[in-house]
C-alpha cells in the first residue's frame, strides 16, 4: 500500500502539529548549535564525520592482548562481553571501535573529558543515542555508527535525524567478484536503480554503483531508528540528480559504449535523492563519499518527526521539533558541496587525554615484545 508523505510537522512515528511561534522561540533559545571545547577538540557545531581504519589497527596478540583490553576497559562493564562475543577478530575490532566512537561523540557533545559520565541508550531498532544528560546547546543531538570491510565510521547532527552506512567492495567482504548478488537482491531494487547498475562495464563498477544505492537506503532506515525493519524496498534512490532513463543519459550511454568509455560518472560531491513509498522526499539530505579502498559511505539527514521509536526514549531527547520551520530554514546546510568530509582518526584519538600516556606506553611495550603464534 502506498502512503502519502508526512505533512509538514507530521512524522512517520510522531505528530506535533503546525509550526508555532513557540517552536521558533524554543529554537532561538538554544542559540546556534554548539558543543563546548573539551580535551577532545575545540567548540564545534557537532556535525562530526569520523572514520577509523580498523584494518590498519593490528593490536599485539589480537583481542587477547593488553592493547585491545586497554581499549575494552574504557567501555562500561556491561558492554564488554558484547564486544568479545563477536565471532572474529575483525568483528571484535569493529564492535569495539564503533562503541568507542559513539562514546567519543557523546563526550565531546557534552564537553566531558571522560567516556563514562553519561548514559547511552538504544531504540528498539538498535540505534544508539545519548540518553542522559542532554547537551545544553545541541537540542536534537544524535549520531549513528556503521562498519564494513576496512572502516568504522560515525556521523552526528545537532538538529536533524542522522544515519550513516558504509559499504565495502566484494573483495573486502571476502565475496567472489561476480554479479550473483544482483539476482538475490533484485526484488529490493527499483527499475531505475537496476538501470544505474546495468550501465556499468565491469563487475567492480557495477558493484560500486550498487554500494552507493544500498548504502543510501540503509542510511535512511538507520536515521529513523528502525534499521532493516523499515523496509529497504520502500526507498528509491536517484544518484547525483540523474535519471538513468532520460534521453540525455541514454545518449551518453550509447556514446560511451561506442567509444569504450565508462557511462556512469560520479559527481564531484556525490549525493542521492530518495523517494519513500513512491513519494519524493526532498527534506531528506543524503550525502556520499568514497573512502580509500573503494568503500562508499552515506550520511542521511532528515526531520526528527520521522523517528520511529517504540520505547519513546529516543524521541524524548529532542527538544526542538520541526527544526527546519522553527529555524527559518537554517537547518538546511546548503548544496551538496557544503557537506563536511570524513576525518580519519587514529585509534589513539579514541582514548581520553588522562589515559593517553598510559596507552602509548603500553603500545611501545607490546610493540617490543616477540610475537607468539
Automatic annotation (TrEMBL):
<keyword id="KW-0808">Transferase</keyword>
<feature type="region of interest" description="Disordered">
    <location>
        <begin position="1"/>
        <end position="39"/>
    </location>
</feature>
<dbReference type="GO" id="GO:0005829">
    <property type="term" value="C:cytosol"/>
</dbReference>
<dbReference type="Pfam" id="PF22624">
    <property type="entry name" value="AASDHPPT_N"/>
</dbReference>
<dbReference type="GO" id="GO:0000287">
    <property type="term" value="F:magnesium ion binding"/>
</dbReference>
<dbReference type="InterPro" id="IPR055066">
    <property type="entry name" value="AASDHPPT_N"/>
</dbReference>
<dbReference type="InterPro" id="IPR050559">
    <property type="entry name" value="P-Pant_transferase_sf"/>
</dbReference>
<protein>
    <recommendedName>
        <fullName>holo-[acyl-carrier-protein] synthase</fullName>
        <ecNumber>2.7.8.7</ecNumber>
    </recommendedName>
</protein>
<dbReference type="GO" id="GO:0008897">
    <property type="term" value="F:holo-[acyl-carrier-protein] synthase activity"/>
</dbReference>
<feature type="domain" description="4'-phosphopantetheinyl transferase N-terminal">
    <location>
        <begin position="56"/>
        <end position="158"/>
    </location>
</feature>
<dbReference type="Pfam" id="PF01648">
    <property type="entry name" value="ACPS"/>
</dbReference>
<dbReference type="InterPro" id="IPR008278">
    <property type="entry name" value="4-PPantetheinyl_Trfase_dom"/>
</dbReference>
<feature type="domain" description="4'-phosphopantetheinyl transferase">
    <location>
        <begin position="162"/>
        <end position="242"/>
    </location>
</feature>
<dbReference type="GO" id="GO:0019878">
    <property type="term" value="P:lysine biosynthetic process via aminoadipic acid"/>
</dbReference>
<dbReference type="InterPro" id="IPR037143">
    <property type="entry name" value="4-PPantetheinyl_Trfase_dom_sf"/>
</dbReference>
